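Protocol check, entry for the methods section draft. Step 1: assemble the input record (protein sequence plus ligand SMILES). Step 2: submit for complex structure prediction. Step 3: store the structure tokens unaltered in the notebook. Ligand used here: zinc ion. Step 1 record:
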Amino acid sequence: MKLTGMERPVDTLGRVVIPREIRKRLQIEDGVDSFDIFFEDDAVILRKHQEKCFLCGSNQDLTEIDDHMICAGCIERIKDL
Ligand SMILES: [Zn+2]
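Step 3, stored output:
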């Protein structure tokens, strides 16, 4: 984990603005993208949410099945079983 040296206040509703420089670097599109939120000890970690196959982690050729994303490759592998 890398300390950015940036500090942002938490507003009265618990919101924190992620600095533009970081949003730009992560190619976060305001009003479109979202984050997955993790915490460990006293740290909160945000990671740009990306749909990916729940079996292999691929983000190519995804299909949603019962609230899970699965890629075409894994579907083919399952068919071959
Ligand atoms: Zn897959």
